[in-house]
Amino acid sequence: MRTFLRIQLVMLVMLVFGVSVVSAEAGSYGPNLIPNPSFELTENDGPLAWGAFGLKGCCKWINGEGLGGSGSLLITAETVASPVWESEYIPLGGAGGGAEFSAWMKMENVLLGAQLWHKAGIRLTFFDAGRRVIKRLDVVRDEGTSGWAQIRNAVIIPEKAASVKVACYLSNTTGKVLFDDISLRLFPEHVGKRPSDTGGEDEITITVDPSISKGDIGNVNGLLYENARKKFSGVKGLQPTIIRTPQIVTYYYLIKDIGKGKIGYEWSLLDRDIREIVGMGAVPFISIGWVPEVLEEEIRNKDYSRWRAFIIALVSRYSGKYDVSGWYWNFWNEPDVFRKVGGKKGYVNWTGAEIDFYQFYAETARAALAANKNVRIGGAGFAANSPWLFRFIEWCGVSGVRLGFVSWHSYGAVPQLLGEKIERVRAALGKYGSTKNAGLVIDEWSSYLEVEDESKVELSMGNYAAAYRVSALTQMIESRLSANAWFNTYEDDYGVLAGGVKQATYNSFVLVSEVGRKLVAV
Question: Which of 130, 148, 198, 317 matches a 20 to 30 Å C-alpha distance to 241?
Answer without folding.
Answer: 317
